[in-house]
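@channel anyone free to eyeball this complex?
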Amino acid sequence: MIKIADVVIVGGGISGVAIAYNLAKKGVKNVAVIEKSYLASGATGRCGAGIRQQWGTKMNCKMAKFSCEFFENAKEELKYEGDIEFKQGGYLILSSTEKEHEQFKKNIVLQNSLGIPSRLLTLEEAKEIVPFLNTDGLVSATFCQKDGHLNPFHTTEAFAKAAERLGVEIYRYTEVKDIIIEHGKVKGIRTDKGDISTNIVVNAAGGHAQVVAKMAGVDIPVYSERHQILVTEAIEPILDPMVMSFSLNLYCQQVPHGGLIMGRGDEGEPRDLRVTAGWHFLEEMAKTITSLLPPLKNVRMIRQWAGLYNITPDRQPILGALNEVEGLYLAVGFSGHGFMFGPATGVLIAESILGEETTLPIDMLNMNRFEKGQLIFEPSVV
Amino acid sequence: MSDNSIVCRCSDLTLEDIRKLIKKGYTTFDEIKRMNRAGMGPCQGRTCMPIILKEISIITGKPISEIAPGTYRPPVKAITLGQIVETSEGGGNEHD
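replying in thread with the prediction:
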């Protein structure tokens, strides 16, 4: 293990490897990523594998658009020999109340003003996209063709390999035990394989972000909530877009391989970092999805798993330097959409560490927004 | 076994496919699974997991007892979403 680094990143998910790649690309020589298991073993690899630009806040829209444009050229930029399985089948988002329909109208105005090609659809138009959609109880829909799917394991691997070619050291199966602070400044990091001296540490620990922040003596306003997912066997292509509803609390997409990935959230989910699978989810998921997409009754599910949403009070991430500890940067609190924001996170944190003007204005995502009470709430999260 | 023997029937992977990944440094079942879908099909790794663990052991020189097996996830057997709905609406406690 190296003894001295310019930057040490905690967490080998999409955020960690994307930050490392961007730092190395900008010429930073000694960058290390520490991952306690294998790459994408946490929230990244457990996510629903969807990417969308249809958000309800300006900042989330901008980060999503930036990231989507990156994904469109990712294969060339990252020179990955594998396949990141990018598919732009769109997201069809359904409203089931008048209030939600009104929110959708606002979302579309916001998204269109930022150059996101989403549109409001009637239920008849929605059925043209998914003919077997059961529209009982629905009000309207929005659709954006540029949204879609990406394989989280291969995307993380693509960033990691590109970073390693630029000299980044990635330590897999290495656990961070402590962050060494002296006089309010970061001085190093302690792992189970040795210590590294560094003046800059980035917390990109996903579902474990608050645990890592504690190592630096910092409380961050996030909690981790279990979210569950299941996948069916691979079948012939029947569903182009991701079908999603915030009020029905579900999403479902057929991935290029043929399996249908679907998930839902639950207010009552445990917040103790467990990622075990539960029976209640399975029943609720099966009932709601077969009611909305009836032909799925005949499809066999083969696997169920769970991951952690690292949730902030306003459902927007916390990005940038922390005022309390010099040299500590946060890329946390993605509230269930850290994978799809990965490319933006990588660029913005790298720029912020190097003191450059950031491509997108991230001041409003700094942790000090919670003290100032300047919160803008994201309404569109499952 | 020859290099072109099928190891994972669900995802159509040969021994050569598996050996290549192990030699590239993917030396646990879970990493191999995530790279090429070994064990992600309807049988959930029942056929391929023992063979893959043995190959990892041969190539890395580690005894099988020291190699982490893949995570076992529910269900034990593939089941249609319709069957889950029927069972849950029937109270979920009765078995045939």
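from a first look: The beta strands of chain B are 6-8, 13-14, 79-80.
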